[in-house]
Structures are given as structure tokens and as C-alpha cells.
Amino acid sequence: MSLWNVPDVEHDPVIHLDRWQVSRLAIGEMAWDIFTGWDINNAYGRCSTPIESFEPDSASAITRSGRRYVLVSSPGYDDDAWYVFEARFGSVVPPGCRLINVSLEYWHQIQRPPVGGEHAWRGIDVTTVEVGQAGLRIFFRIASAWQLTEDQQMTLLAMERTTLRQWKAGKLQNGLGDDTRERLSHVFAIYAALQVLLPEPAQADTWLSRPNAAAEFSGRSALSKMLDGRTSDLLAVHQYLDSCLGW
Prior knowledge:
The chain has helices at 79-89, 103-111, 129-145, 150-157, 161-168, 178-197, 201-206, 222-226, 231-245; strands spanning 14-27, 30-39, 44-47, 51-55, 60-63, 68-71, 97-101. The protein has nine helices and seven strands.
């Protein structure tokens, strides 16, 4: 497929985006926010036109083209999408321009529960196999970055070994259950927060395993707390990092 040969808006009005980022291209007083990420509908990296409006409750945005982008994961990175971005805007930021990763600004808005209960986006398609597989792909990439053992992955997801291996092989038969989705949401939020607090990847990826003197951990590592195995243990680490971010 040609780099620019994508279906028009009429035939492809809604894009579900995995491994997404929002990059702000600023020139003087003007700024444009642009999505990059993996288009799970069409299975290729994508770069949007500028974002015109954002709806946190549905984790979706309308871009200048008229397309709706639905964010199905926490922020991430996709090589193919970034290739498209650089092909469109150049690999070197021109003098007088600034390129800023503002993904966490959007993620923080999505994470805030709206009045009336759960985010609407969690009810769009989260019980489908397609969205479940997208979430698991993110989890296994994070698990690799954190160097988690299979037993540790099983504990974080409260899952049996056979099922975990089937999921890792892409053999998800049904959509994910509520508890698994909640556990994944905490893992994604923890990962995203660490990318902001510790921009050096090696530090961000090893922080969980290091002893922590904070009162919440009493000298244990954050990973040790998470491996106590309850959903509330993941939530505790999630909330601790949110407090470090000032959220």
C-alpha cells in the first residue's frame, strides 16, 4: 500500500488506534496536536490530520479530516506510525518549531472518571476479541520491558499458565472480563506514568523492581506490592504514581 493511499473518510470514518501518541507541533503562537499510532482496523501505522475536538469520556477525537479516532489503549509508540509522521513533517524539527509529546495530557483526561460512572469508551467495544487482543499485545510488550517472568505475568493478570500462553500466542477466544480489563488499565497507567516521571527508558523500566522507601512500600519494591496479587495492589501503585505526577 502506498504511504498516502488510505481509504477516504466516507469509507473509513472511525479509526481504532493502539500504541498512540499525541505530538504537538508548535510554531510561534500556533499549535497543532496530531495522533500517531497503530490503526487496528487496517493493520498499519497511521498519522492523523490535526485534532479539532477531543472527548475524554469516549476516549475519542475528531480530526480536521472529519475522522473519529478512538483510543483503545494507554499511550505507546509505533515505529510504522512514526515513519509516516516523519514522511509528512520531516525527521528534523525546523528552526522556530517545537515538537512536544503531549500524550499524557490526553491520557490524564481519559483516566478521570466522568460524572455518572465509567468512561463511555470502556463500553464501546471492550468486550470484543479485537479490542482484547490489542490490550494484551500492549501488556506483553510492557511485561517484556519490565522483564517480568511468566509467573509474575500470571499474578498480575490473575490468570492460569495455559490461558496466559494462549493469549500470548494471540489465541483469545472471547473478550476480556471486567477484572482483567481493570488490571490491564492499572498496568497501562503505571507504565505511562513512569515514562513521564523517568524519561530515560532504562530507569523507567527498572524502577518497579528497586527497593522503595516510600511509606506505601516500606522498603519493598513497587513490583513486590503489585505481586501481592490483588487488583487493589495494582491500584495502590497506580495511585502512588499519580500522586508523584501531582494528579
